[in-house]
Amino acid sequence: MQSAITSIGSIMLQSSVNALGIVYVSAYTALMKIKQFTICPYNAFDTAIATYTSQNFGAGKMERVKSGIKAGFIIYGIYSIVIGLVLIFAGDKIALIFVDGSETEVLSCVRLFFQCCGVFYLAIVVLNCLRAVIQGLGYGMASMLAGICELLARAGMALVFIPRFGYIAVCFTDGAAWILAGACVAIMYAGIFKRLEKKLTKYTVDS
């Protein structure tokens, strides 16, 4: 379901990009291949964090869950900083795998996108790490709300900002989606974690 929600947002965004012209479509096609590749490690991190959280939560070891979150933030953070800097300074060079060097306009669009989007990779640290923790704690529906927030952000950019501001709005769409969804996840995480700690404390006292 979560992947379906993400796909809807991507389709809406692609439709808006198509209306901008062939240069932007070519640039977006190339940069999306690069971006999707950079996102793959996050999926592996997500699975590891969710599994670690569920195992330790099941054993009632909330301190280990907290330790896992801290380690997750460090791992996500290091990767996000490294890949963000690579994309900011060399995203257009990587795009040469998919785009001919003579297509300077296309490469300029790719460069602009990654210069805008690269700094927002740090927002994925909060979004993906805490979403994986929430999933590991058994709150799948709460995690899905983050996907809905991403969809709303992308839909808003596609329907309102891209038609008005053009390609520059495309460059900030992922950042807007990650920040909105990350804020949503952080709020849900705080509420869920506090509630679960109270339950475990009460259970320990009663036992």
Return residue spans where pLDDT drops below 50 for at least 5 consecutive residues: none
Helix count, DSSP H or I runs of 4 or more residues: 7
Coarse shape: elongated
- Work out the helicity level: over 70%
Mean pLDDT: 91
Order of helices and strands: HHHHHHH
Number of strands: 0
Structural class: mainly alpha
Strand content range? under 5%
Distance between the termini: 39 Å
| Gyration radius from CA atoms, angstroms | 19 Å
GO molecular function, one term: antiporter activity
Membrane topology: Multi-pass membrane protein
Subcellular location: Cell membrane
Keywords: Cell membrane, Membrane, Transmembrane, Transmembrane helix, Transport
Topology:
Blueprint: H1 2-18, H2 22-58, H3 62-94, H4 104-117, H5 121-136, H6 140-165, H7 167-206
Helix pairs in contact: 1-6, 2-3, 2-4, 2-5, 3-4, 3-5, 4-7, 5-6, 5-7, 6-7
Features:
single chain; 207 residues; mainly alpha; 7 helices; Membrane_Transporter-Flippase
Please provide a written account of the structure.
The chain is built from seven helices and no strands. It is elongated. The N and C termini lie far apart (39 Å). Helix 2 (22-58) runs parallel beside helix 5 (121-136), helix 4 packs parallel to helix 7 and helix 6 (140-165) runs antiparallel to helix 7 (167-206). It has helices spanning 2-18, 22-58, 62-94, 104-117, 121-136, 140-165, 167-206. The chain is mainly α and 207 residues long. It is a multi-pass membrane protein.
